[in-house]
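User: What would this chain look like folded?
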Amino acid sequence: MLDIITVTHKHTACYLVRGSGPWVLIDALWPDSLPVLTATLHKNRLHLTDIACLFVTHFHMDHAGLTQTIKGYGAKLCLHKNQLGYPEKMNEFFLRKPDKAYHPVTDDGNIAVTTEEGRILLQNMGISGVWLPTKGHTPDSMSLVLDKDCAFTGDLPHFSVADDYSVDVRESWQLLRKQQVCKIYPAHGGEYTFVPQ
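Assistant: Here's the prediction, encoded as structure tokens.
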């Protein structure tokens, strides 16, 4: 049994997820979204210190803007090894376009994992799932897939239009089909049922 809480700011959603262990946050919204996140946490009798781990589907400002702030409350940033170097690219973006709410992502305390190591990490947090590369939107795009249940896909285009996109998008959906997911939680547009074609 999973607990899922959706937090939305500026048409972008992030998700708090808990299995039998601590809370995990999937994506970190915009740099100015801290009041929205904390208000949702308080409504659910939670605090930022209840978030044990953060997974970022890709390092764009609307998905990773609060990363360092959340780390400051004790959460560990879990990176797939395919994402190494991308937090620094986001930092570079904000050097060119400063945002007073943005705190550069540092390397301290981050956990870098392979796909299999990510599965073990999730199991240790009471979640049966896998942290999978699902390229297409960006080279560092990832999906958190909970076994035979659901997937948190970030900005991966909707499966019904995958054929209109790159080979990477089509291959990402083929990978998700193999995981037997039945529900998709995207970053934009609200969750939907996955009906493999």
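The chain has one domain: 3-193. If you want, I can go into more detail on any region.
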